Every structure is written in C-alpha cells, then in structure tokens.
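Structure request: HAD-IIA family hydrolase, Cohnella fermenti.
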Amino acid sequence: MQISMRLDGREEPDIRTWLFDLDGTLYFGNEPAPGARALLHRIRSAGGQVFFVTNNSRHSPQEITAKLEKMGLIAPVSSIVTATEGTGRYLRETYGRLAVSVAGSAAFEEAHRVAGHDVCPLDDNGSVDAVVIGLDEAFTYTKLEQIAHALSKGAKLIAANSDLYHPGLGGRKVPETGTLVTAVEALSGTAADYIGKPAPHLFRYALSLADASPSQTVMVGDNYSTDIRGGKSAGLYTIWLNRIGEQAANGQGQWPTADLIVPRLSELCYHLGGEYDES
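Returned structure:
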C-alpha cells in the first residue's frame, strides 16, 4: 500500500508493512485511540500487513491480543512483538542459555523459561549470569538491594526497555521499566543493556516475522525517542503521532526527523485516501 503523499520531498514510497506502537498510539488504558479501528481497516483493506511492536514487558502477546479484541482492534498473536518475549529471546541468541534472576511480571518470568533460561529467585545466594528487569509493579527496596548484590558478584544487568513511563488515562504518567533500572544503575554503578526500542532487536524481529524489507516498512508511534529514533536507525520510514505538539529536536540537530508528523490517527487515515474517521 502506498502513502498518497511525498515524504521529505522524496518519491512516494511503496509501503507494504506497517509497524504500530500500542500504548499512547492505538489505545489509552482500556480505550482505543480515536481513529484506530478505521486506520487499521483502511491499511488491511488495501493489502497492507500490520504488526505491533511494543516495549510492553509485563504482558504476553496472548494477553495483549485479548485486551485489543475487547477494544475492537484486531491483532493476531502472531503479529505482536513485545519486550516481554524479546528480552529472553535476545539473551538466548546472544549468550545461549543463562542462569537469570528476573524482576517483572509472571508473564515476563515465564517468557525467559520458554526461551530456555534457568530462572533463579532474586534471593538465591548463588551466582547468576544476568539480572533481567521488566515492568515490575511489585518492585521493592529489598529487590533493589538483592539486584545490586547480584551485580556486585558479576551478573550482567539486562533491561527490557528504557522507557521512564508510559501514558495513562487523563495524561497520567505510569512508571515504567526505565525508572526502576535508573535506581539500580545508580546504586550498583552498572550500566544496563536495553533490549526494547529504540534498540534494533524488536524491529529486526518484526521484519523477520513479516518477511519485510526496511525500505517498504513504516513505524508509527507516539514516542519520538523510542519509536521514531529506533525506526530510523533500523532503516524504516517513520510516522510520528505528535498529539501535543512536542518538539522533536534537542536544539543541536542530533535527532532524526520523522518522515511524516500527524496530530491524530484520523489525519493519517486521511493521508491514505480515507475519510476523517474517529472510530
């Protein structure tokens, strides 16, 4: 499917694969973003394939599919790429099977077992190869101390994603993995290896699932630092959903420019030859 306009003065790209962020892009809390249903329908009706690339490290793809279905958004499990599963997969592909301690949800911990790792309790006195941190709503002072101790014994520090927060209903900032990891880094003096966007790992996996070329793929998201910078680094076209008129540049021209900037999904649907539809 082709975007019916020029991007940065170039010829119209032949976009065949669409990658979408989730939180803050297609939904807020438990409500779909205005225009989300119509946009996905428009893309699929024109023959485009749709995948979802999210730094969500708390839920499995199955859980995310169920959540989206309740909002009327179609998202097969096979089309969802998460930091939940991506972190364990990255570790397996990079280091092989590891002994890991996990701070995160039950789904995040289980994903590391499925990837073939030996998951050890954080309070285990034995040494582990890595401590892996996701969005952990049960994070405590005691966990912070236990993680720092494991790192002092030589464990790697792996983080699912660097996001400090994700947008909630009413503009609330919901603390994310990056906030927890910042505390760990400050205490331990150990720098984390981040797996999620803007790192290339989730983008590459999505492209492999889609059997897609970067030059025919676009990333759509609301977070400039993760979605747009990461997408550009992966060689993708990018569309920034900038609802609040945020400034992209840091004043020194070091941030890449999104190929298209829109304030709402319904406007993107219009750019694709559809109508302004907030459904």
